[in-house]
Design goal:
The structure holds 2 protein chains of 2 kinds.
Chain A lengths: L2 H19 L4 H15 L4 H6 L7 H17 L4 H12 L4 H18 L2 H19 L3 H15 L8 H10 L3 H27 L7 H8 L10 H19 L1 H4 L3 H16 L3 H5 L4 H19 L2 H13 L3 H18 L2 H19 L6 H12 L8 H12 L6 H28 L1
Helix pairs in contact in A: 1-2, 1-16, 2-16, 4-9, 4-14, 4-16, 5-6, 5-7, 6-7, 6-8, 6-10, 7-8, 7-21, 8-10, 8-21, 9-19, 9-20, 10-22, 12-14, 16-19, 17-19, 18-19, 18-20, 18-22, 19-20, 20-22
Chain B lengths: L2 H4 L5 E2 L5 H11 L3 E5 L5 E6 H8 L2 H5 L9 H7 L8 H6 L6 E2 L1 E3 L5 H11 L3 E4 L8 E4 H16 L4
Helix pairs in contact in B: 2-3, 7-8
The chains are: A mainly alpha, B alpha/beta.
Chain lengths: 428, 160
């Protein structure tokens, strides 16, 4: 092993440790790590900007950018708040029915929006509904953030790891819907059952308080009807573009950027409202990660690991899928699943290239493990951290262990149920 | 005109002061902000009136402004019920709220010096440094504005 490879591995592992411990901002760590890889000579300008194998994955960066712009504009319409209040009123104030409706709404929204945005939209209105009902908000918030992580697994755009996997594996929006959405629908039903078991004792019906929910006027949440109509039309076109990808020949990133441009044009909002929700730090974090992982690809580290993994797996791809599923879930519960998937994607690609069609389900095992594993602990996913922050600001603190004791149950059940699905669908 | 000429006493609050008590002080005296004392009773910081207003509004509405319109009249009255539980300490601990370090001006500072320092520090209230002990004295933004306008009127002989 050359000195260059040793240095690159030291930089990579150190960056991982800093990202996991969150002592320094993750974007700073990723960019410094990327810079050190250049200094070491593990990559160069051509490799960073133009290499499809070892450079920045522009499909991922621009798909995220396009969707951030679209969602940032759509959320200004108030439609999500309308939906949540409407659901609470349809449930006639019965707490568990409200929880089920909010869980389903959150899961469906999460399939099309990123999980953090979904939680930012659904948590405040949940606090409002719970305050009206005099019900504890913590069970609702925990249930919603978990359903967000589950629902986000269903589509290519639902969770950032899926975007990375899709780009590296050449998977389409439809591939994700066909392969993961049926399982996610089943897991959502099971999750609702778990919510009943975990939270039913804290959900008390209070007839006196119900009228306070029924008095809420959800129509007032819609602040700009023309904006809502334009946003929904453009979002519909973007989703149609994703679904018809193979017919129109446009990559998801191009579809999202065209949608973002069209929405900016027709809404004529000022730039700060169009770009205000773009998480530039997240995009830079992705860029830094791709450079670091690409450096290991350049130095042959990923290929060597891929060869070793291929030899270890042999033709036991179900065993590999099970290992990837549970390993990813455990790892994603402890550290951010984005750097994990960014690292594992080229490795999984090597395994799939070696194994052909028989090894293809490994992609789904990676996506399921990484996405569902985010529920395991309070820090397993960005959405968990955001929900806990909102709860704390509103006087409903959720401790690490309060979240994690429910998270471990939900993750164990959902990940374990994914294994027979993979076996029945791909290996039987 | 010097800082000592403009100085007056100010309403002091501490971490435990409730949002409602702070709001009463602001409303009764049309204050631009409140001076916060530390545990020893020494004035150390200033919270603006609009940040105290933020304490009265439920956090979930500030997180999502679309929710502000969904209440009926009865519901709007209920919204304020939680305000008694909130304290100035929450403002001091909130990273999103800018709590200003208390600006200090010399007792013999001129009106120009005071105005420049307050504008530069974005301070609504400044502590007037005193040599002896006694009750702390403060210069407030309205007092400085008033002095500037009177001075402009004396020189230019015109009213705005």
């Amino acid at each position: 092993m050359s000195v260059q490879i040793v240095l690159a591995l030291v930089v990579f592992v150190a960056a991982y440790v800093f990202i996991a411990t969150e002592k320094i901002s993750r974007v700073t760590v990723a960019l410094v790590g990327a810079a050190l890889m250049v200094v070491i000579g593990a990559t160069d300008d051509h490799g960073i900007f133009f290499s499809e194998d070892s450079g920045i994955d522009w499909n991922v960066i621009f798909l995220l950018l396009g969707m951030m712009i679209i969602v940032g504009i759509l959320k200004q319409s108030g439609v999500f708040e309308f939906l949540a209040i409407w659901a609470a009123k349809r449930a006639r104030g019965r707490p568990f029915v409200i929880m089920v409706m909010l869980v389903v709404i959150t899961a469906v929204l999460s399939a099309f929006l990123d999980n953090v945005t979904t939680v930012l939209l659904i948590a405040p209105v949940t606090l409002l509904i719970c305050e009206r009902l005099a019900a504890p908000a913590i069970p609702f918030l925990i249930a919603e953030v978990m359903s967000s992580n589950i629902g986000g697994t269903a589509t290519l755009i639902g969770d950032p790891p899926n975007i990375i996997i899709a780009s590296r594996a050449g998977l389409t929006f439809n591939d994700f819907v066909v392969n993961l959405a049926p399982l996610i629908a089943i897991l959502l039903v099971v999750f609702i059952g778990l919510c009943w078991l975990m939270f039913r004792k804290s959900l008390k019906y209070n007839a006196e308080r119900v009228k306070r929910v029924m008095a809420l006027n959800e129509r007032e949440a819609i602040r700009d009807v023309p904006l809502l109509v334009k946003s929904l039309v453009v979002l519909g076109l973007v989703l149609a573009g994703f679904i018809l990808h193979s017919l129109i020949g446009l990559e998801p990133a191009i579809v999202a950027l065209l949608g973002a441009g069209l929405l900016a044009l027709v809404t004529r909002l000022e730039p700060r409202k169009i770009f205000g929700d773009v998480e530039w730090e997240t995009l830079l974090f992705f860029a830094g990660l791709f450079i670091m992982v690409g450096s290991l690809v350049n130095l042959g580290v990923i290929e060597a690991l891929g060869t070793a993994a291929t030899q270890a797996v042999g033709d036991n791809y179900f065993g590999a899928a099970a290992g990837l599923l549970f390993g990813s879930a455990i790892f994603s519960g402890i550290v951010d699943n984005i750097p994990f998937v960014a690292t594992l994607a080229p490795l999984t690609n090597d395994l799939v290239q070696a194994g052909g069609a028989a090894a293809h389900p490994l992609w789904w095992a990676l996506a399921l493990g990484a996405d569902l594993g985010g529920n395991a602990t309070a820090i397993g996913a960005s959405a968990n951290v955001v929900a806990i922050g909102i709860a704390k600001r509103n006087g409903q603190p959720i401790s690490f262990w309060t979240f994690t004791k429910y998270g471990l149950i939900v993750t164990a059940v959902t990940v374990t149920l994914s294994l027979p699905y993979l076996w029945l669908r791909y290996f039987m | 005109m010097h800082a000592s000429d403009l100085a007056s006493s100010a309403s002091l609050v501490d971490r435990q002061t409730s949002a409602l008590a702070a709001a009463r002080l602001i409303a009764a005296r049309s204050l631009p902000g409140l001076v916060v004392m530390d545990d020893s009773g020494a004035p150390v910081a200033v919270v603006s009136a609009v940040d105290v207003l933020g304490l009265l509004v439920p956090g979930y509405i500030l997180d999502d402004m679309a929710l502000a319109g969904v209440f009926d009249e009865q519901g709007s009255e209920d919204v304020w019920s939680h305000a008694a539980d909130r304290t100035i300490g929450e403002l001091l601990d909130d990273d999103d709220v800018h709590v200003y370090a208390l600006l200090t001006v010399e007792a013999n500072a001129s009106l120009v010096e005071i105005a420049a320092q307050m504008a530069h520090s974005r301070a609504q209230i400044a502590l007037v440094k005193s040599r002896g002990g006694g009750e702390p004295a403060f210069v407030t933004l309205p007092a400085v504005m008033d002095a500037i306008l009177r001075f402009c009127g004396d020189v230019a002989g015109t009213d705005v």
